[in-house]
Amino acid sequence: MPGIELARSYKYLGRYRQVVGVLIKHGFGEVLDRMNIAGYVQLGGRRLFSRKPPDTTQSWPERIRLALEELGPSFVKMGQIMSTRPFLIPPELVNELAKLQDQVAPFPFEEVKQAIKREFDQPIEELFSEFDEEPIAAASLSQVHRARTQEGVEVAVKVQRPGVRSVMEKDLSILRDLATLLERYVPESRQFEPIAVVDELWKSTKKEIDFSAEARNIEVFARNFEDDDRIFVPDVFWDLTTSRILTTEFIHGIKISRKEELEKSGLDPAELTRVGGDLVAKQVFVHGFFHADPHPGNLFALPGNRIAAVDFGMMGKLSRSSLELIADMLIAATADDTRRLVHVLQNHELIGDNIRVATLEADLALFLQRFHGLPLAKINMRAMMSDAFEVLTTHQIKFPPELMMLGKALVTYEEVARGLNPEYNFVEELRPTVEKFATRKFEPKSILHDLGNYIVDVRDLMINVPFELRRVVRNLRRGELSIAFQHRGLERLIAELEKASNRIAFALIIASIIVGSSLIMTRNFGWKIYGVPILGLIGFIVAGVLGLWLAIAILRSGKL
Known about the structure:
alpha+beta; five-stranded antiparallel beta sheet; four-stranded mixed beta sheet
């Protein structure tokens, strides 16, 4: 996604005004003022940045959630995606964004028919023998209808909302602009990397609005668990699937969160918990491909204590290095070995050289002491996430984005497991799989693979170093070698200097108008009214209005 572009700012001017207006309404006018947003986007002559203090009865995370809900479905979806990144944003904001509801009014059935006709160039009656007009679920990006194919197979048809792509692209572009200004002019925001957060949202959103990509995710997931009959994955009907329409096998199950209904149907919550634990372990440590949005509405229990998952739009893919990092960290954590945990972070270059290792080790020891060995019933997940976030930000520990997504998914799995079986120890159940994975790197095959990669790296280094040295020497001879300096913390000063220089220029223009009008008056030049030159009179009026405008702006800024 590009940075701030003036042409695009004008193109989205109406939406910019709406977004900024809602943020001001919920008490973020001071922040917008500091961001100097008016210097980049023409927002009209009215005073936008009210200094009225926000409602003290609501916390700032609550006000952000309310603002997102007011801005509409695309911002709600962004908030939900942000809530799956628990170590990118403060935990209190994560908890608040998790309350965002993705239930919105369904769009008319006539639009569903038009969307299907547009995608397949066939009317809905020729593709399906039955098609329920009322959706069984409606969300910000799509809605789902129960239907039946011409062959009589019951299916779920997911239809994308008309125009949702352009709306999401526009809103994410605006959000990217705001993040750029926030990071540039509000230094304390940089620890949360606003631009990186929005870029992650952009990547996730692009995947979610491509239903053909979701269909491929389903097939990959199905292949991964084809030998495990405890896990059910619906079939994809590719002849009825496009990038905007997804048709899958219909699932008749019970939501995993309805414990009483499960027990009445003869299902065993404890066994379902164990199956779910195996599902998580295999997703992460066997296949490295996991369901990143496993909330209770996406998990169903089937007869025989089987588990079915739906909505594969948000998936995570783990690299080998990320898997090794997870395994090493979990082994150290379950063994309550903080020194080993610090070494793992150092080996994976997640902490800087200037970090005080002893302090980090002490903070990790306190963290593990609070939660080590406890069953789920005794763990406060919000408190655990808050403590983990504090350790990460204090010591500037940076995890890869896919691990942050995994962290949120694991927390959600634990919450689901807690509802089914509070005594289930999720971490301990994962330990055998983790240890088995961790020992793979010591197998002869793995050692030979790593050795081969090392030899290739050394060879490439030996080939490239002489060339790079020659290039440096050549640039030195030509005088083309340059050193770049980057200032930090001066953005606020620059913004204030820009405002001051603009006011000085404005004042000079007013003074020039007054001097010019005075000369016209003294020389008795041009048309007159009651003996007074009209041009000089107009000049004095314009100068008076502009001077009053400048005075009001200075008084409102509070910097007389």
